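User: Please predict the structure of the protein below. I'd like the answer in structure-token form so I can feed it into my own downstream comparison script.

Assistant: Understood. Taking the following sequence of 478 residues as input:
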Amino acid sequence: MALNNVKETPDAETDVLIVGAGPTGLTLACDLARRGVRALVVEQSDTLFPGSRGKGVQPRTMEVFDDLGVVDAVLASGGKAPVGMVWQDGSRQGEHDMFERPGPTDSAPYGEPWLIPQWRTQQILHARLTELSGRVAFDTALTGLSQDTYGVTAQLSTGTAATGASTIRAAYMVAADGGRSTVRAILSIAMTGESVDPAPMLVADVRIPALDRLNWHVFPGGSAGYLAICPLPGTDHFQVVGQFAQGEPDTSPSGVRELIGARTHLAADEVTVLWASDFRPRAAMADRFREGRVFLAGDAAHVHSPAGGQGLNTSVQDVYNLGWKLGQVLRHGAPESLLDTYERERLPVAAQMLGLSTRIHRGEERRGAATMQLGLGYRGGPLASGGAGALEAGDRAPDGPLPGRRRIFDLFRGPHFTLLAVGTDSELPVLDGAPVHIHRIEAYEPYGKGLFLVRPDGYVGWAGEDTSGLAEYLVRCC
């Protein structure tokens, strides 16, 4: 194993250039910063995204945020999804819960979706990045790129009038610049997919003092299309989502107010509009997630219907998968072939989540266990080897209680691998400085008994009853 062998790229000014400061780009930047990887985020806008769009954080993403050190802020700034209330002709028709709510368990501490507006999630991630000495270059757009054997050269423009132009060299680039990705267009990577719903949609953030915040208010709307108004926890805002079975959305403040006045019992002049946008529900995926030294992640790689809340969550987990691999290659001398596993692991997951989002949008499936993403994994994948006890390599590594008010997730937190010896006195290896923390714990049903090497992203990479094959596995990753 090559350890602490920093791979220098000739004339590189940063290790990783991240294009886009949404949840995807900021999550990756935080992960890389704690690994000692130099990263620069460039963002075309002059500020963070101002809207609530991706408001649902699934339990698996909460576990990612736990590892990154931001889950307490996310919990403090959000809340549980309220139960739906159906309205007709100004009267309440009854409650309808849109979610299954299994609740927290020892092995899965975050038991249901958590609502927090996207703008607040981004503020939390940006604050964490600043703590880790990372930075975002706002008002900076990517205008071109080229790559060679050693790295990527990016052309940048600064200022809304493109008053400044510069270039920067990076070992790798990650496109986190959304569904209309400039990077993807420059690379001529096609998106393959379908329209989920021919009706365009409007999404807006508003204040409505006359409306209670106890429910997620749903107005069926008939032939015109439905309208939903959801209170955003931690704020005095509501998110409005409206379908337009006829005509096109008017995203102006007056247009949003008129929509609410026409489809609800609420007075239009009591609505304050803070932000609005329109979109057409679509399910599409990039034909590939990598081109040389450039990777696509998040909406740049796949776009979802918002139904089921899978877009932001799948995006965050894309870069949670990619970040540790970049760190191993750039800081620990791991073979560059490790980076090939990003597409091989994430593309099938993205395809699965696209299908789920589409079925939920069309009413063919309910929001349930699958939307929480706790059951996703990489069994049979390129970095899954062996099995022991209750788990196979590729499975998510469960949480659980430990003596002294500690938890198994406390052992995982950080950029390292973790070797768990669960309910076994099997001899443990000496790993000669590899980035692996070793712990013995008592037998625990979600694991059974055995040895489990947990990757930095919380999935079992290798498992066995003894250490046979462990050293060979680590060579591939370290």
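That's the full token string. The radius of gyration is 23 Å.
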